[in-house]
Write a structure and sequence with these properties.
- By secondary structure, the chain is α+β, with helices and mostly antiparallel strands.
- It has 51 helices and 35 strands.
Length: 1448
């Protein structure tokens, strides 16, 4: 109890004291002056800056009494400032103080000159004033759909006819109605165009309806509006208006951009998750508006505030906000001063006039739409921006229009075909005029001397109008049916095969794959580059402790999974983790020194400084462990060599306590109740800390509770409480975190944990080299396994040193200028001289099957890059884990200081050095002597190295990349260097840099393809390169959107980082490993099917057009057609459409599509000729010209006048040529089909057989409607009854089919494609039997084959030489690939001949197994195959799938 004298002194002092409100002290880190001590020491009389300001204010009469705070706010202030005059050590209070300090720093710019020279908006919190204002703010309704009922037709038609092909067909249909020039009626071409547009319209409507559903789901979401009386009503998002006060609760999204006014957390802050905005999963801190002491503890008090906000107009800036709130309230006269950002006092209001205050608003008070409230109960915020004016909507980049490579290919080919059509039409028009002048007028019965409509006297008019006639006649050169078939096929491939492929369905989340842009299906089959994000894409963002090192010795194993054994806790878990740790800990726990060890916070200074955990027992006394050391008889009795290896080292036990005490104390985690029950959950900004503390808890070292200024631990059953004195948070510059604590026995210790590069610099200078070498070896060993490492250090601090340092630290924390720099310097000072304790090794858990997926993609000659915003060390570690980087020691690291003046020169020098290193590597690998040339620069030399050679590995960080990308020459060097690297890791990259990397490699590939060519040849080379290799980006966060949109194909991962990446992607999958079947199966099939669809569609139409063209040589080039317009239209729409449609949906190069994953080398399209300009004109055009000649000239020259049924007229000739033509093109699609099903076979036969009923029934139908058509009536009866007809068409079929059959057989026998070889082997032996060990493991990780049950015998295990039997699938189970992957029957392949390519890298070398050398262009066991026409014919005719391939 204080004495009267003390009370008197305190009362006297109180007369000159001005108290700072607790919230203000918390905001600026200002320490309150404690009451003067009894001895009146100088220390007790020291005054903080805030106190000095308040005292000065009191002398001039400005000071007011502190505002009355509620119990909750006082408790919050006490929590934030547990000790008078000290900076808080509680994580929540520290976070709140940091947010408020950040606001004070930003205040200088926030409201400065707002409104001068820029547009602003004024918003009132009073709803009546807001409604009375003349404001025209946008609605909160967001629309992403393209059409509505009114706009669909005009927008859709504009989009369709803006394409050259559809405009061409529209012109054709229009001209066909001009009877003067048209050889056909307008019905056929118009009906075909309408049908194509209708199919495209259905697809467009289908896709837009899904957008409408998404918009409706978002716009009808419920939020909560606060009424003027403080009540809350639920409203849909569309009813949110600017000026409303909205309440948002935990786990709810913010419906608009809000300014926070109130938070229910006692710390007066809130936590938000910005995943949908920036892709980051860690929580961000926001705080309510600083109301200068006005009460806002309830919603009613919030609504009583009279706020006027002047804010900047809507913009895209996600990091800055400029605004100013004006408050008029008489209660402000009783409020204290508010300190400014520079330490200057600012009046809370004007001394004259009404009581008011202007409060700047920064981004720290803003809650943006799309973010989610977390762990904050509820907040109330004023709506500032709505709808399309919100930040997230303004940053939503318009999805670029991506068109598949086959569409670009067809644009050029259609242009060339149209050019050919122009030439043919011009030739025919001129030939017609010449024929009329030279031959036609000789035939008097043609009356060509009389100039009438159709026979013009003017030569120009005659040639021009005849040209239009032939333009219509030969319009079949461009197949209109191709476009509708492409729409249907791509839709089916994407929305049926991909969306419902069970091999692409995540077994945990049950998410199906999503095809969002079926236009790019073929590009999935020709990817050469994959640019992948790391976190959430390659990794699951789940950290787990795998190993540790204590005093240079590694413990644990990557094979041990503590999380898979939750029932093992305490010493049992420690025993599972490592027996040596268990023995040491158990031994020390049962020793007499255990209690003193844990209450001291760890071992004594001598033992902690000892370089090993296995000291000589003769030195136990000097280390302070003599009482715990084993007796002489319990260990080796040889003097100088007594170690207790077998029974567990006592020193190791002490060091284990040092290690785990550090882990349990040095972190920023808080504990939360588990909603599902069970142990409390750890929450914090770092997933590494969560993993470490969680593992420590399982092994018996428990972070039990966090109080205001202390932490409670449970060390193997003994509870101890540590007072936390100081916390130095982690930052990227510091690279570590440290805490200073006072142990229960009064010992002051500093615990530090961070990156090896930072912490090892703080280690005691005289640390033995042996310990440093062993620790570096540990770090290297862990890094080779792809583990994330942190170094742990501890230091004992004497009390005098600590008091001196702490005084300076608290003064720095209370300062307004240079605060961060001063705190960092003091942190480095106290951290110097650490004792090295050990290393943690954390696995950033890869998603299932990622290493196998990357190996498979590399084997498919696809280059995989990792581009991440994470730090370089972590990125390289993950690259090692997923086998993207094989030797981290040999990685070329391009790091420069981007702030240095010599940054550009340093980067250029490093690039040149790396290029020379690549030259040396290539010379050593191949024996070439590229490095001997002195004339060329390194970049020019490396550019000559074949693209297939990729051996180097490169790592680049973001700041260095910024320097490189600013210079075109260095950018080119980097592209050349990276193109010859097997693994490239880009770290600390921004979203714009991710997109820039994709653009860089696109330009490089174009430059390389163009070479030294000039003019048209250069353009064609670049055009050809654009169609060949495609670039794919894959990511899961909003920071990956730019990269996804820049790449040719964007794939979004449906992970934990929101849906921004998915919403801006072309395809969405749940796991990275699903990229393998997406590319190797669906991409291969789409490429294979669509390439043949395009060639066949042109082939059948060109064949038809040339039959009409050849006839012109025998009718004076008059434009006479052999068939009527309806029959011509039916040819495309009915007779030839279904076979190629089913072919494009069902056909496949091999029956068992798992072979496409087993043999990834099949994916490489660099040497593929499936669809090139040459193959197109050979197969699609030239073949049509030849077959058209056969189908016309043989019937023409076979016309006979003998017999009962003569076939001598033009219409009979047309019928014979039409049937011959139809049979020829039908046999062609049957011949190229590699996978026959009963459906395909039936419809192919029917599509041809129906022509005969059509020829009979169609004339009768015309008579039935009263239309007499001389080209049909009675003609078919005579033709079908003629033996000449049947003989002629048989000869046509034999010639055309025989030619193609001989050509195909020669290809199979002498120039077999890889798929030919596999298909032949599949029929003989099967493709999925006798899997080798590496292949079996790879396919199992990918989910292509099921993992064998542990009950299987070793003899049946393929990894041990056994077979993969039919019993691999449980009875009655449907294989996951059966959906479009066919029958699950697997035939036996003896002697393991199936594995000729499996387990090899892209260069053909063996990986993971002793395999025979790879023969050129073939597989082991195929070199001796017997080519057989009979076997080929049997294969072509066989119904190889007894099960309908679409069955599920």
């Amino acid at each position: 109890m204080a004495s009267p004298a003390q009370n008197s002194r305190q009362a006297g002092a109180a007369g000159l004291r001005v108290e700072i409100p607790e919230e203000e002290a918390l905001q600026y880190g200002v320490q309150q002056e404690p009451p003067p001590s009894e001895n009146g020491s100088s220390t007790s009389r020291r005054k903080s800056p805030g106190t000095i300001i308040r005292e000065a204010a009191s002398w001039i009469g400005l000071a007011r009494t502190p505002r009355q705070q509620s119990a909750g706010s006082l408790a919050a202030a006490a929590a934030a400032r547990p000790g008078s005059g000290r900076m808080s050590v509680n994580p929540l209070a520290r976070a709140a103080a940091d947010a408020k300090y950040a606001t004070s720093v930003d205040r200088g710019d926030s409201g400065k000159d707002l409104g001068a020279g820029e547009r602003t908006r004024v918003i009132y919190s009073d709803r009546r004033r807001q409604a009375a204002g003349a404001h025209d703010f946008v609605s909160n309704k967001v629309v992403t759909s393209k059409y509505n009922i009114v706009t669909f037709l005009p927008i859709f038609l504009f989009e369709m006819f803006s394409r050259v092909a559809y405009l061409y067909f529209l012109l054709q249909a229009g001209l066909s109605w001009w009877s003067v020039i048209s050889p056909f009626s307008g019905y056929g071409s118009t009906a075909a165009l309408v049908f194509v547009l209708a199919v495209a319209a259905v697809k467009a409507i289908w896709e837009d309806v899904k957008r409408h559903h998404e918009d409706n789901r978002m716009n009808t979401s419920i939020t909560h509006r606060v009424e003027p009386d403080g009540s809350v009503v639920d409203i849909p998002w569309t009813e949110v208006r600017v000026g409303d006060v909205i309440q948002v609760r935990d786990e709810e999204l913010f419906p608009a951009d809000l300014m926070c006014l109130h938070s229910e957390l006692p710390e007066n802050v809130c936590y938000i998750k910005t995943t949908n905005l920036d892709g980051e999963t860690n929580l961000k801190i926001r705080k309510p508006l600083d109301l200068k002491g006005l009460p806002a503890n309830t919603l009613k008090e919030v609504m009583a505030l009279q706020l006027t906000l002047t804010a900047e107009e809507a913009n895209k800036n996600l990091s800055k906000f400029k605004g100013k709130v004006h408050i008029e309230d008489e209660r402000l006269r009783d409020m204290p001063l508010s300190p400014g950002p520079a330490g200057q006092a600012q009046p809370a209001h004007s001394l004259d006039g009404p009581a008011s205050v202007d409060i700047p608003v920064t981004m720290n008070e803003m809650l943006l739409r799309g973010c989610m409230l977390k762990n904050s109960k509820a907040i109330a915020g004023l709506v500032i921006y709505t709808g399309k004016e919100t930040r997230i909507q303004m940053n939503a980049a318009k999805t670029p229009l991506k068109v598949g490579s086959f569409d670009h290919f067809m644009n050029l080919q259609i242009a060339l075909v149209i050019a050919m059509q122009l030439a043919m039409c011009l030739f025919c028009a001129i030939a017609n005029y010449i024929w009329i002048q030279q031959e036609g007028k000789k035939h008097y019965y043609l009356a060509l001397n009389d100039y009438v409509q159709g026979n013009w006297s003017n030569a120009g008019a005659q040639i021009g109008l005849t040209f239009l006639t032939f333009w219509i006649l030969l319009s079949y050169l461009v197949p209109i049916s191709l476009f509708v078939t492409l729409e249907i096929v791509k839709f089916w491939q994407g929305f049926i095969f991909i969306n419902f492929d069970r091999d692409l369905r995540d077994p945990k989340s049950r998410e199906w794959a999503r095809c969002r842009n079926s236009n790019l299906n073929e590009d999935l089959g020709k990817v050469e580059y994959i640019f992948s994000d790391k976190t959430g894409t390659l990794t699951s963002n789940e950290m787990q402790l795998r190993q540790i090192a204590v005093k240079g010795v590694a413990y644990g194993s990557t094979e041990v999974r503590l999380e898979e054994n939750p029932d093992r806790t305490g010493l049992a878990a420690l025993r599972l983790f490592d027996t040596r740790l268990y023995k040491a800990a158990a031994k020390v726990q049962h020793s007499a020194s255990w209690s003193s060890l844990v209450t001291a916070g760890g071992s004594n200074s001598a033992l902690m400084a000892h370089p090993t955990s296995y000291p000589n027992l003769d030195s136990a006394g000097s280390l302070g462990i003599a009482d715990d050391a084993p007796p002489a008889g319990g260990a080796s009795s040889t003097p100088g060599h007594r170690h207790d290896w077998d029974e567990g080292s006592t020193a190791l036990g002490h060091h284990v306590v040092d290690f785990w005490t550090n882990i349990c104390l040095c972190h920023s985690l808080i504990l939360e109740d588990n909603p599902e029950g069970g142990p409390k959950l750890f929450q914090g900004p770092s997933p590494d800390e969560v993993a470490l503390v969680d593992a420590a808890r399982q092994m018996g070292f428990v972070f039990k509770e966090r109080l205001q200024s202390s932490v409670v631990l449970d060390m193997l059953g003994q509870e101890v409480t540590y007072e936390v004195l100081n916390v130095m948070e982690y930052s990227s510059d510091r690279g570590c975190m440290s805490v200073v604590v006072r142990a229960p026995d009064g010992t002051i210790r500093l615990y530090c944990k961070g990156s090896d590069t930072k912490v090892l610099m703080k280690i005691r200078a005289d640390t033995p080299a042996e310990l440093l070498d062993n620790t570096n070896a540990n770090l290297h060993y862990f890094a080779k396994q792809g583990l994330r490492t942190l170094v742990v250090g501890t230091k004992i601090i004497d009390d005098a040193t600590y008091q001196s340092w702490d005084r300076r630290y608290q003064e720095a924390a209370a300062s307004f200028s240079g605060r961060d720099e001063a705190l960092d310097a003091l942190g480095r000072e106290i951290e110097d001289g650490l004792e090295l304790i050990g290393v943690t090794a954390i696995e950033d858990k890869l998603q299932d099957g990622v290493p196998a997926a990357i190996q498979t993609l590399l084997d498919a000659s696809i280059r995989v890059w990792m581009i991440t915003g994470d730090k370089q060390e972590t990125a390289v570690n993950i690259a090692v884990s997923c086998r993207l980087v094989t030797n981290p020691d040999d990685v070329m690291v391009l790091n420069v200081d981007d702030k240095a003046e010599t940054a550009a020169a340093d980067a250029n020098a490093k690039l040149d050095a790396f290029l020379r290193h690549v030259i040396k590597m290539y010379d050593a690998d191949t024996g070439a002597e590229l490095g001997n040339g002195k004339q060329q620069s390194p970049v020019d030399v490396v550019a000559t190295i074949p693209a297939e050679w990729q051996r180097a590995e490169l790592a680049v960080d973001g700041p260095s990349l910024t320097v490189v990308l600013q210079d075109a020459a260095m950018t080119h060097k980097l592209a050349v260097l990276a193109a010859h690297c097997s693994g490239v890791v880009v770290s600390r990259s921004s979203p714009s840099q991710k997109a820039a990397i994709v653009k860089m490699m696109k330009r490089y590939e174009q430059w390389k393809a163009a070479g030294s060519r000039r003019g048209l040849r250069r353009w064609y080379a670049m055009h050809k390169r654009r169609l060949q290799g495609k670039m794919l980006s894959i990511g899961d966060g909003a920071n990956d959107v730019a990269m996804l949109q820049t790449a040719d194909v964007g794939v979004g991962i449906m992970g934990k980082e929101g849906r921004q990446a998915v919403n801006n992607s072309d395809y969405a999958i749940a796991q990275f490993r699903f990229l393998v079947p997406l590319l190797l199966v669906h991409g291969n099939l789409s490429y294979y099917r669509l390439a043949r669809l395009i060639k066949y569609s042109f082939y059948k139409n060109i064949t038809f057009a040339f039959v009409l063209f050849y006839y012109q040589f025998y009718n004076g080039f008059s434009g006479q057609a052999l068939v009527d317009s309806i029959t011509a239209a039916v040819f495309n729409v009915v007779f030839t459409s279904l076979p190629i449609l089913l072919f494009s949906i069902l056909d496949r190069p091999v029956k068992n599509l798992r072979a496409l994953v087993r043999y990834p080398q099949l994916y490489d399209k660099r040497n593929s000729h499936s669809l090139t300009t040459l193959s197109f004109w050979k197969t699609g055009v030239l073949l049509g010209v030849v077959h058209g000649a056969v189908c016309f000239f043989i019937p023409y020259y076979s016309l006979a006048t003998s017999g009962v049924h003569n076939v001598t007229d033009v219409y009979s000739l047309g019928k014979i040529a039409f049937v011959a033509l139809l049979g020829t093109v039908t046999l062609e699609v049957a011949l190229v089909a590699r996978y026959w099903t009963w459906l395909f076979g039936t419809l192919t036969v029917l599509s041809y057989a129906l022509v005969y009923p059509y020829l009979v029934i169609f004339p009768l139908a015309e008579l039935g409607v009263g239309y007499y058509d001389p080209s049909n009536i009675g003609v078919s009866n005579e033709v079908l009854a003629s033996a000449t007809f049947w003989f002629v068409i048989l000869v046509c079929y034999i010639i055309t089919f025989g030619m193609r059959f001989a050509e195909r057989t020669a290809d199979w026998a002498f120039k077999p494609q890889d798929s030919f070889i596999l298909s032949e082997k599949e029929r003989k032996d099967g493709l999925m039997k006798d899997l080798s060990g590496p292949t079996r493991k790879r396919l199992t990780e990918l989910g292509t084959v099921r993992q064998r049950s542990s009950s299987k015998s070793a003899a049946a295990d393929p990894e041990r030489g056994g077979e993969l039997g039919e019993d691999e699938l449980s009875s009655g189970e449907v294989p996951p690939l059966r959906a479009q992957y066919g029958s699950n029957s697997m035939q036996h392949w003896p002697n393991g001949e199936a594995d000729g390519l499996e387990g090899r890298d892209s260069g053909g070398s063996n990986v993971g197994g002793d395999l025979p050398p790879l023969p050129p262009r073939g597989w082991e066991g195929l070199a001796t195959r017997q080519t057989s026409v009979v076997r080929f014919a049997s294969h072509a005719r066989s119904a190889s799938g007894t099960q309908y391939p679409l069955q599920r």
